Amino acid sequence: VQLVESGGGSAQAGGSLRLSCAAVGYPRDKYCMAWLRQVPGKGREVVAAIGPGRDRRFYPHAVKGRFTISKDNAKNTLSLQMNSLKPEDTAMYYCAASPGYCYRPFLEYDYNYWGQGTQVTVS
């Protein structure tokens, strides 16, 4: 299983960025998929998760209404559209996956597979 993120970069506050994650080696529609972020000195924080099948979505309060997670099962890709960006959104962003449903979508330790990360900087 391989997850490869792309699309990070710099944006001004109030702007937008879109992250993508390509999955290789497994059927994405059988996994709980998520985006997490991490700043130096802190643990990883789930910013969005999406379940298999009926695509139930989960967002923490900090990003709800600004971030949108989506997936394309045919292309095996996961995306994160980030709008109304704030400086506090600056972090390394990771794509992650866990087999089955999103039983505990906000718990980073439930995710078994990780991408290498992509940096997002908002100024």
User: What fraction, in percent, of the residue positions are helical?
Assistant: under 10%
H-E string: EEEEEEEEEEE
Uncertain ranges: none
Distance between the termini: 34 Å
Major sheet description? 7 strands, mixed
Shape: globular
Give a short summary of the structure.
The protein is mainly β and 123 residues long. The chain has strands at residues 2-6, 9-11, 17-24, 31-38, 45-50, 57-58, 67-72, 77-82, 91-99, 113-114, 118-122. A hairpin with a 6-residue loop joins strand 4 (31-38) and strand 5.
Task: Lay out the secondary structure.
Layout (H helix, E strand, L loop, with lengths): L1 E5 L2 E3 L5 E8 L6 E8 L6 E6 L6 E2 L8 E6 L4 E6 L8 E9 L13 E2 L3 E5 L1
Parallel strand pairs: 2-11
Antiparallel strand pairs: 1-3, 3-8, 4-5, 4-9, 5-6, 7-8, 9-10, 9-11
3D architecture notes:
The chain is 0% helix and 49% strand. The protein is mostly beta strands and 123 residues long. The strands form 2 sheets. Strands 2, 4, 5, 6, 9, 10 and 11 form a 7-stranded mixed sheet that branches. The model has no long low-confidence stretch (mean pLDDT 92).
Name its key features:
123 residues; four-stranded antiparallel sheet
